[in-house]
Amino acid sequence: LSTLISSVSYALNIITPDEVRSWHAESGFEQFKLQLADGTWVGGLFFEYDDGTPAPKPLLMASFGMFQDRWGTESRKFYDLYIKDPERRIPAHILILDHPTAGAFFAYNDQLSVGSYDDARMWMEVARFLRSENEFSGIHLFGVSMSGQTVVHAVIEDERLGTALFDSAVAVSIAPDFRAEPGGQFAELPTRDGVENPWKQVLDGPGESAGLGGLKSAAIWVFIKKQFVPSYRLARPDGDLELERHDLPVFLWQACGARLGLLRERRPRTWNPEFSLEDIPGFMTTTRIADVIDGVRTPLVLLSARDDPMVPRVRFEEVLRAAGDN
């Protein structure tokens, strides 16, 4: 969520097919696409690191939250800051993954996911695949905003299952309670006359959003028009997705609900039953970070700005209290 407000001005510069080709020529990235065991397709960009030595290199897996994908504003900013310049480049292979709220994910799957534990399971499957194909000195995770939840759940699930995939993780401006953010923002989106916004169902209880009203609503719609839809078309050139602003809450609700339906049918036996697949409010409630943070054993850094425009500081402070001495 935090990337949403900070990036709205950049969303007008969504990457075009010609820019994709230019960026590829400049950076040499590889397109990454993998079909998971349940049939889900995940995608991203892989940036290989070569320092001229044969020693195994670390892998950094990264994602940037709501509506962000490989072509998104945050992906390009991350590339400019940490990959483009050889003198400042992170000394690791880097895989930037689409967030499952992104247009590219919808293009591949005709579904969306709020992420969290669901996204964490996807990351684990990606990591297992890459480790089977490559030798890494370690695998490290980096997530911003909603992807911060992915990172936390991934290291906890890695520990629970004993898979020993991940060596460290960083979560920046984490959105720790999805009922509040993004649930609160989605609940404020306008609908057509006579149509109830379904996201209001997630606001029952203490997780309600502090809300910035029309500002957040406008920012979300800008991202849908200028990033979600163009990214969908980059990933699926023959697609015919058209969205109207007043249809957006129902579209997002139905797309995320379809994902839960698939998971109910195909979830593996290792799925943690503590995380409800009954409905969207249940999933958001059971995956709150404050309720699971004490299960972290992998080195994890959580960073939060006191003036975060989308996630009130009180959410982060709740996580800190729940973590205790961990």
Distance between the termini: 26 Å
Number of helices: 11
Quote the beta fraction. 5-15%
The main sheet orders its strands as: 1-2-4-3-5-6-7
| Element-level helix/strand string | HHEEEHEHHEHEHHHHEH
Largest sheet: 7 strands, mixed
Tell how many strands the DSSP assignment holds: 7
Gyration radius (Cα, Å) is: 19 Å
Structural class comes to alpha/beta
Question: Low-confidence segments, ≥5 residues, pLDDT <50?
Answer: 1-12, 206-214
Give the overall pLDDT as a whole number.
90
The portion of residues assigned to helices is: 40-55%
Give the overall form: globular
Q: Explain this structure to me?
A:
This protein has 326 residues and is an alpha/beta fold. The protein has 11 helices and 7 strands. It has a 7-stranded mixed sheet, with helices on both faces. α1 (2-11) packs across α8. It starts with a helix and ends with a helix. The relative contact order is 0.16. Mean pLDDT is 90; it is low at 1-12 and 206-214.
Short description:
The chain is an alpha/beta fold and 326 residues long. 41% of the residues lie in helices and 13% in strands. A hairpin with a 5-residue loop joins strand 1 and strand 2.
Keywords:
globular; 11 helices; 326 residues; 7-stranded mixed beta sheet; alpha/beta
Q: SSE layout and pairings?
A:
Blueprint: H1 2-11, H2 17-27, E1 30-35, E2 41-47, E3 57-63, H3 73-82, E4 93-97, H4 103-109, H5 117-133, E5 136-144, H6 146-161, E6 168-172, H7 183-187, H8 214-235, H9 248-266, H10 280-286, E7 300-303, H11 313-323
Parallel strand pairs: 3-4, 3-5, 5-6, 6-7
Antiparallel strand pairs: 1-2, 2-4
Helix pairs in contact: 1-8, 4-8, 5-6
